[in-house]
Amino acid sequence: MEAIGNAGSAIGILSKDGVVLVGEKKVTSKLLQTSTSTEKMYKIDDHVACAVAGIMSDANILINTARVQAQRYTFAYQEPMPVEQLFQSSFVVYKAGYTQFCGVSDLLVFAFLFAGWVSRETSPTP
Q1: Distance between CA atoms of 32 and 34, rounded to whole angstroms?
Q2: How much is the pTM?
Q3: What is the per-residue pLDDT for 112?
Q4: What number is the average pLDDT over the span 5-34?
Q5: Judging by beta carbons within 10 Å of its beta carbon (0-12, 13-18, 19+), is residue 49 exposed, middle or buried?
Q6: How far from chain centre, in Å, is Cα 96?
Q7: CA 104, CA 100: separation in Å to the nearest integer?
């Protein structure tokens, strides 16, 4: 449980001009050398990015699943996968199936913040 407390936060800010994703990397010991890796930020596809708060090893499982789903959709339909559909097909279905097996623990990922764009032929209606 100590690892969960040291996982760090992720914040997403939406404005009329765009989206900002920020991830906190906690330094748990002064003896550890800090790296410049972006372990909290992931590129899912050309049009989707994701910030993660939680255990990174568990997040990698779900991120890789999302990347595969996005590439399969692009290959089949020759267009980027809608962000909502990407989330539903990758995360909701995978997490539900993953926890149904005996001896498999739940994934310790607190939050996934998705940011993406969707091209539209017409303006969205409220």
Answers
A1: 6
A2: 0.73
A3: 79
A4: 76
A5: middle
A6: 16
A7: 8
Of 4, 1, 14, the C-alpha closest to 113 is: 14
Q: Half-sphere exposure of residue 115, counting CA atoms within 13 Å on the CB side?
A: 19
Q: 58 or 52: whose pLDDT is higher?
A: 52
Token digits of residue 3 = 């690892």
Tokens 């089949």 found at = 76
Question: What mean pLDDT comes out for the span 99-125?
Answer: 66
Q: How many CA atoms lie within 13 A of 17 on its CB side?
A: 0
Q: Looking at residue 55, what is its pLDDT?
A: 72
Q: Which class for 40: exposed (0-12), middle (13-18), buried (19 or more C-beta within 10 A)? A: buried
Report the alpha-carbon distance of residue 34 to residue 49 in Å, rounded. 24
